Amino acid sequence: MAGVLSAGVALAAGTSGVLDAVERSSIDARFSIRGARKPPSNLAVVGIDGPTFSELRTRFPFSRRLHAALIRRLAADGAKVIAYDVQFTEPTQPAADSALLDAIAAARNVVLVTTEVGPGGRTDVLGGDAIVRSVGARVGDGGVDPDPHAVVRRLRYQTGGLRSFSVVVAETAGRHVSAAPFGSHGAWIDYVGGAGAVPAYSFSRVLDGRVPAAALRGRIVVVGATAPTLGDVHATPVAAVMSGAEVEANMIDTVLRGIPLRSTGWALELAIALVLGLAAPLLFWRLPAPAALLAALAAGALFAVGAQVAFDEGHIVPVAEPLLALALGTISAVAAVAVFAALDRERVRTLFERFVPATVVDQVLARADGVRLGGTRVQATVVFCDLRGSTALIESLGAEAGIELVNRYLTEMTDAVLLHGGTLAGFRGDGLLALFGAPLEQPRPCPARRGRGAGDARRPPAAGQRVGALHRAGR
C-alpha cells in the first residue's frame, strides 16, 4: 500500500507540472554528462560577429547588396543549402532588393526565414510568397519556443501553416521530414554541444574569400547573427548563451538525423514509477532497516545510471517522478517499520506486564536484541510453591472460604515475586511457579544448592512473613 500510494503521488505531481522544473534540470545534467558529440560534417555557420562590423565598417542591418554578394560567394564555394537566418520583410532600396533577388535566383538553393506568419502560412518576405517562389527560394518559420524558464529545448514542425526553418532546410537538402515525431509539444533538440560546437566562420572573412571553399563545399551553411550585441541569443541546455544561428544549426542537425532524441511512452513511465515506489517497501519487508535503506539508495543510483545510458542512446526517461516515488516509498517504509515496531513493543509490554514487574519489562524492551524466539543459557532460580495440606484445609473451611484463602495466598505470593523482580511462569490450583534470573539476569543470583534438587531461592523476609502468617491463619 505504501509503495502504490508513493507511486500515485509522484505520478500526480508529474502530471500537474510540479516536477517540470526538476525534470528539465535533469535533462540539462544529462546533456552535460554526455558531453559534446563529434561536430557535424554537413553543417557550418557563417556568423555576423564582432569582427565583421569592424572589417566592413558598417552597421546592422547591412545593405542587401552585401547579403547578395555573400550568397553568390557561398554558391560559388559549393554550399549545398544556404539557410539565411536574416529576415527580409520590409523593402529597402530597389537596386539592393533586386541584387538580392538576382543572387537568390542564381543560387537556387536558398531558404529564407521569417517570424511573421500570416493566415495559411502566408509571409511578406521579399514582397510576398509569389516573388519568393519565382526566384526558386523557400521560407521557413524561424521562431523558437523557450520553455517557462526561457530555455530553448524543443522545435516545432510548423506554425500557422508555415513549416519551421529547420524543417524547410532539411527538406531542401533532400530529407523527407514527417510531422509525427514532433508531436503536439514539439521535438527535443539534440544539441551537438555548447557554443562553438558547430564549425563557424566570420561573415566578412567568407565574403572576402579568406575561408577556403573546401570548408563550405557540400555543407548546409547557416548565415545569421552571432554577435551578442544584435540580441539574437538564447539559453539552451548546453550553454547559458548561444547565438540564434547556432541554435538553428542544431535544430537543422536534429531534423536531418531524424529526431534522434525522444521521450519514452507513458506506459513505461508508469511502470518505472510503480517499480521504484514499491522497491523500498519490499526491501524493508525482507531486509533489516539499515540494509534496506542502503539497497534503496543503490536502486536510486542504479536507475539514474540507467537513465543516463538511455539518454546516450536517444531515449529521455523521466527521472523526477520515479525518484520521488522511491523517496516517498522509502519514507513511508521507514514510518511503517517504526509504527509496527512501536505496536510490537506495546504488545510485548502488555503481554509481559501480566507476569513480570513493569521495571523488568522496560529492561527487556531496552535490550539491543529485543525479545526473540529461541533460548539462551543463563543462571536462574525456579521456585515451586503450593499450600501444604490445602485439600483437607479447604474441605474443613468450605468451598467459599477455601477459594478466598487460595486467592489471598496467590495474591500475596504474586506480589512478593514481582516485588523482587521475579517472573510468574504460571499457576496450577493452589500451586505457583516463579522464575528469578530470567528473562534478565539479576545482580545477585541465588547460589545453587549442591546435591539433589534444583536449588533453593532465598525467601525474601517480607514475603516469607506474609506467607507464614497466611499459613497460620489457614490452619
Low-confidence stretches: 448-475
What structural class results from the helix and strand content? alpha/beta
Kindly state the number of beta strands.
Answer: 18
Strand order of the largest sheet: 4-3-2-11-1-10
| Count of helical stretches | 16
Radius of gyration: 43 Å
Mean pLDDT: 86
| Overall shape | rod-shaped
Domains counted in the coordinates: how many?
Answer: 3
Q: What profile does the largest beta sheet have?
A: 6 strands, parallel
Strand content: 5-15%
| Relative helix content | 40-55%
Report how far apart the termini are. Answer: 65 Å
List keywords for this structure.
475 residues; 14% strand; six-stranded parallel beta sheet; alpha/beta; Alpha-Beta Plaits
